[in-house]
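ingest -> fold -> write
write: protein_1
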Amino acid sequence: MTLVLVGMSVTDVDRRLELLAAASDRSATVAFLQMGDPSLSLELTRLADLGATDITLAGINLGPLAPAHSWLRRIAAHWWRERAGTKPVLDVATRLATSLDNLDDVLADRKPVTGTEPGLTSAAWEDVTAHQRQVLVCRGPRCTAQGGEETMRALILEMLEAGLGDNDVLVTHTGCQFPCNQAPVVSIQPDDVWYGDVDPDTARSIVHEHLVAGTTVESHRLPR
């Protein structure tokens, strides 16, 4: 059996070294569902091309903002259906590991991919959301090193508390937004407002003052 640990969220990309260490202990490899390389699809192709006949996937969620476990099966099944020629047996752990310490327990319960799983499209994902603002949270190297993960977590959790969904505000991870000395950086469009040094408390203020009340947080606004 070939084991692949699959980081589900940007948090898991940030913690790549922990995943690599856990993989090394188990003679496994690492892939990412989003925002990280190698992608799950590319890693499955690499392993299959090398002759792997039995591959097990374990989804890793080390933060609170990962997509649902169902997305791991969807992506894996899409790859399996599209794979030309000989296809490996592909098993997926039935739940995500929320800690690397409970990985063995998670791997004890697995189900094979059959190819009948839901695809990557749905009527619910056809249209652009009705959001009036888009919040771009920098996850470049400096912003990540200086707390971008905590900023994102605070921002999204506070938005949920305030009742703001995708049809109000669309939150997007980005690469470097360039004013790196001001990390962590958050920008809001189409307002063309940029914030710097956005720690979790500032992120919560941005939600209530800017996104709810429509007033900029001048203490952290960057000049344009």
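write: protein_2
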Amino acid sequence: MFIPQHSPAAERNLPPILAQLQRLLPDHGVALEIASGTGQHVAGFAQGLPGWNWQPSDAQDTAFGSIAHWCAQAGVANAKPPLLLDVLAPQWPLQGATFVEKFDAIYCANMLHISPWATCAALMQGAARHLAPTGVLVTYGPYLERDVATSPGNLDFDRSLRQHDAAWGIRQLDDVREQAVQAGLQLRERVAMPANNLLLVFGF
């Protein structure tokens, strides 16, 4: 029997993230999700933003069945089959597929701290290539901020990430912003979220 992947954290943070996307985004558009993982987010977004068409993606196809399951369970017709997409690749997506159009929004959650730092520059550069002129890149996750005290939980989390892989770790917001600027994007909004996370909105 097929058992879909399930993330309790994704289940918890879906409602507050969706509420922010409903506030930020217009009624209609086309969105790309980077690192879709279990598929819980894209299924919830497609359900909560029915005027949007969603393209899930991931660097590995091992979760594609889970993504399809959650979208089917949500009963959504506005989420496409997932594509292989590695942000570090010079061309998005992989497997010879192409994007038909520019995206009005690109969403990426909880990737930057569990991947090498090079993925940050690649994400920003790829977003700059594939966003429509008025599009936005939305990222979600924990960040370190200058002059803002880091929560004990995030400090412990950062230590555990670096012990697991020296290339991982919670990123400095100023460093992420600088990578965005180098790609031609600006940080438009910083939204404090539950559990000491931030939702960041970048645009041209």
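write: annotation protein_2
The beta strands are 29-34, 52-55, 57-58, 83-84, 103-109, 131-141, 143-144, 171-172, 186-193, 197-203.
The first strand starts at residue 29 and ends at 34.
pipeline exit 0
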